[in-house]
Structure prediction request, 264 residues.
Amino acid sequence: MLFMIVPALICGMLFISCGKTSEEMEVVVSMPVKEDTYSGTFTVKYFVAMPESWGSGSGKTTLVLQDGKFTCTGNPGFIPAGGSGTYSINDDKIVFVDENFWTADFDWNLILNGEYDFKFDGKRLKISANKNNVGYYEYVLEKQEEMISNCYQDAIIVSESEFEGAPDDPQMNIVNMEIMGNCLKIRFNSSGCSGNTWIEKLIAQEGIAKSNPPIRGVKLSLDNKELCKALIHKEISFNITSLQVEGTKKVQLNISGNSILYEY
Prediction:
């Protein structure tokens, strides 16, 4: 009889239950959250029936915590909606205060706003909340140290003349663009021998198109004199702080025929 009781007592004394899955056990300790860039997955599970147009499920997101402020990227369909503003931490709670204006045609709980529970193990950050018994909203993220530390610091040129006159490689193709914090990562390819002699520059126009959000024209210039026909893939990154527009918290970057939203 004693041997049957002991396992149950052990389970009851642990911080995590014996019945939880390995996925639920992923973040089992909580440390002070460090200001950094975190990327991962947002998931919403509704407890009540919601309009079909509001959507449900999961989506990729990036959260930046810096100087008491936060920026969270959103997705089409608002899974999640994202948000930006200030945040504070009290014990095992993290409180976000979003400072944006939103339309009324979606679930506002998809905005990163209000009080959440959190757990952080030094790398993985889990933020979650039961919002008014409407649904369970969860962010499971990982710290993105490597990308930020490798981000170029002085690589962007803001010049109308250089934007117009910089060399273009007609064979260049942008495969993917991603922003984490103030770091823009671009994956691209072109024909060449090795890509070792390529000269890449990110050049922005001085003028800004007035819209909501404002639009800034940017060119990825590639000076490519290699005559080989091999398809060479390359990945580069830029610190894009200088592309911020005063008076707004986001700007649409149109980069060589591709568009990405920069929120800060």
Summary: The two ends are 61 Å apart (CA to CA). The longest strand covers residues 37-46. The helical segments are 2-13, 145-149, 160-165.
